[in-house]
Design brief:
Length: 345
């Protein structure tokens, strides 16, 4: 039998993923709360529940899922999440095109609005959001590097992930920008108006989909701390270890929930997460790793060209990370000035 790589060993080597996971879970919880609130308002237009209530509801549900022992116990969650991803993308793309055709196309503007500085910061902020779209490829990578042969499984996982991203989220981004131009909402479902029942369905798909994503992203942090906190040599199902897990996961999710409820600025957290988490993880580190460990060609010209290309990639995306972070932080500051904490968006 081939040796199995421990889940915690993989996670320890990639502490950068924990930074990305933290920011991503904040964005996920805001998005989930927004979708749940949209469904609630469809059936109770004058209802008194706020976005913060639904963020808390979602956090409570994730706390329940967090008590499952490891990433392998989430297979049924991941399967449902995958089906919901396809359902969400298909539904939302269709409804977006339908809404776009009902809008006066001459009224749609595709240029950035505001002063020159506002446009620059908006462009910087967008860099982080674009980088975030590549981060979902981290999910199968985490799952497939926990068993051998890790390189083969990672390649298969990443290939499948980028195929899904291109066929779903990218198409959704293109159709959303075509339909609404620069006025499109960060969470595109918020831009849709008709038909109502399809919007409700898209929001339900979104909640189911990101319920699984939330768990995949928080598992690196769980594994990292459990390796140091649980009793060595004891079963993970022992009362003491279960109690430690409950306490730690409660603190983690309570922190995420508090931040998401206090500052429900979805696009800003998406951009921050993309800038400081996924840009280094997906673009900078692979280029540096190849320079350090990659098998270089014997031909000197080809070798030098590959080295220069990877140096250029690492340098360029480091600049993208810095600019994206600057833009995102600037918008967070502006949002805090405009809205009070725990604002019902």
């Amino acid at each position: 039998m081939a040796p199995t790589v421990r889940e915690s060993d993989v996670y320890e080597r990639d502490e950068e993923k924990q930074v990305a996971s933290l920011g991503n879970n904040i964005a996920i919880q805001i998005a989930a709360g927004s979708s749940l609130k949209a469904v609630y308002k469809h059936y109770h237009e004058d209802g008194t529940l706020t976005l913060q209530h639904f963020i808390i509801f979602f956090g409570t549900f994730e706390l329940f899922l967090s008590q499952l022992p490891d990433i392998h116990s989430l297979r049924w969650v991941n399967g449902l999440c995958t089906l919901s991803t396809i359902g969400f993308a298909g539904t939302t793309i269709g409804v977006t095109i339908y809404n776009g055709k009902k809008i006066d196309r001459e009224s749609v503007s595709y240029s950035l609005q505001g002063s020159s500085s506002a446009k620059r910061f908006a462009a910087f902020n967008a860099l982080g959001a674009i980088a975030f779209s590549f981060g979902d490829a981290m999910l199968p990578e985490i799952q497939n590097t926990v068993r051998e042969p890790s390189v083969k499984n990672m390649y298969k996982g990443l290939s499948a992930a980028y195929t899904v991203i291109v066929l779903t989220y990218w198409q959704l981004a293109f159709s959303g920008y075509w339909a609404f131009g620069s006025e499109v909402q960060p969470f595109i479902v918020a831009s849709l108006t008709v038909p109502k029942w399809t919007i409700v369905m898209a929001n339900i798909f979104a909640v189911i989909q990101i319920s699984g994503c939330y768990q995949i992203y928080c598992r690196p942090t769980y594994a990292y701390f459990e390796e140091r906190m649980v009793s060595n040599g004891k079963s993970s199902f022992s009362f003491r270890n279960r109690l430690i897990r409950l306490i730690f996961t409660t603190i983690y999710i309570a922190l995420i929930t508090l931040i998401a409820a206090a500052m429900p600025f979805f696009v800003d957290f998406v951009s921050i997460c993309g800038a400081i988490g996924f840009t280094p993880l997906d673009f900078v580190f692979p280029a540096l790793a190849f320079l350090k460990a990659g098998k270089m060609p014997q031909n000197r010209q080809i070798r030098v060209s590959m080295q220069l290309l990877n140096i250029a990639m690492a340098t360029w995306f480091s600049v993208v990370a810095v600019l994206g972070c600057i833009g995102a932080i600037r918008f967070v500051v502006e949002d805090v000035k405009t809205y009070r904490f725990f604002h019902d968006m």
